[in-house]
């Protein structure tokens, strides 16, 4: 197993190489497809169809955006968490999906990236639904861990032989600190997920936004100290800003 890290549109891309197949640890942005294809065909000198499995850890634009298109291009399968329903279901889901697309574009602008297409389906049609501790189909050295909190369906991916864990957006790095992501819809689940990772004592953890790291006990405690006690979501942030604006005007 060889782990390749690529610079994605607004996140890191992790491609796992085996002699006979490739595994993508997350579904990337829609804008990442051409860069991924060039890396596989030019740098690795392999067929794009060697990509056999794409995991979608959750439904945000930089984790699910390329999954469907990659399947149509390569014939790969898509795996995700075994959670009923769609994250972006209903009218509220449509609005949240639209908001998350805009946030992805805003992040790209802050990173001085050119404007590219990031729109993708808000409903995922997966080939495999993974339960806690279930091995990835065709890649049995990796198992799925339920690490909800950021959303209701987040998973992390544990490579058992190396004891490395890809945690996606479970934490991000800001000014040398590990902090919770935004949003956190389920605070209690979030803290339980962080503690699950801590208790597994991984040799390293792999972040979608921050690379491969080895947090200290103090850094984990700092992360937990910053974990919200109530949901920290788009709508609550908007309401808080409106409330502060009205208070300042009175």
- Helix coverage percent of residues? 25-40%
What is the alpha-carbon Rg in Å? 18 Å
- SS summary, helix count: 7
Which structural class is indicated by helix and strand composition? alpha/beta
Topology overview:
Elements: E1 2-7, E2 12-18, E3 21-24, H1 33-43, E4 51-55, H2 61-64, H3 67-74, E5 77-81, H4 90-110, E6 128-130, E7 135-136, E8 139-146, E9 155-159, E10 164-168, E11 172-174, E12 177-179, H5 187-200, E13 204-207, E14 211-213, H6 217-226, H7 234-249
Parallel strand pairs: 3-4, 4-5, 5-6, 10-13
Antiparallel strand pairs: 1-2, 2-3, 7-8, 8-9, 9-10, 11-12, 13-14
Describe the structure.
The chain is of the alpha/beta class and 250 residues long. The model has no long low-confidence stretch (mean pLDDT 94).
Brief account:
With 250 residues, the protein is of the alpha/beta class.
Question: Which key terms come to mind for this protein?
Answer:
250 residues, 6-stranded mixed β-sheet, 7 helices
């Amino acid at each position: 197993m060889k782990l390749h890290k690529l610079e994605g549109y607004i996140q890191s891309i992790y491609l796992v190489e085996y002699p006979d197949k490739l595994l993508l640890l997350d579904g990337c942005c829609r804008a990442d497809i051409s860069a991924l294809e060039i890396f596989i065909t030019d740098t690795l000198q392999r067929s794009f169809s060697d990509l056999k499995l794409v995991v979608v850890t959750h439904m945000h634009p930089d984790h699910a955006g390329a999954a469907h298109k990659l399947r149509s291009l390569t014939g790969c399968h898509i795996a995700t968490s075994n959670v009923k329903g769609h994250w972006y279901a209903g009218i509220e889901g449509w609005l949240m999906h639209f908001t998350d697309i805009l946030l992805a574009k805003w992040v790209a602008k802050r990173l001085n990236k050119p404007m590219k297409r990031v729109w993708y389906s808000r409903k995922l049609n997966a080939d495999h639904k993974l339960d806690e501790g279930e091995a990835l189909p065709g890649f049995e050295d990796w198992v799925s861990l339920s690490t909800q909190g950021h959303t209701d369906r987040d998973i992390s991916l544990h490579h058992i032989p190396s004891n490395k864990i890809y945690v996606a957006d479970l934490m991000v790095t800001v000014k040398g600190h590990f902090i919770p992501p935004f949003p956190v819809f389920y605070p209690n689940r979030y803290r339980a997920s962080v503690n699950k990772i801590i208790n597994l004592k991984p040799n390293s953890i792999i972040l979608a936004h921050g690379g491969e790291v080895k947090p200290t006990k103090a850094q984990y405690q700092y992360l937990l100290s910053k974990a919200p006690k109530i949901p920290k979501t788009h709508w609550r942030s908007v309401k808080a800003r409106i409330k502060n604006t009205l208070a300042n005007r009175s």
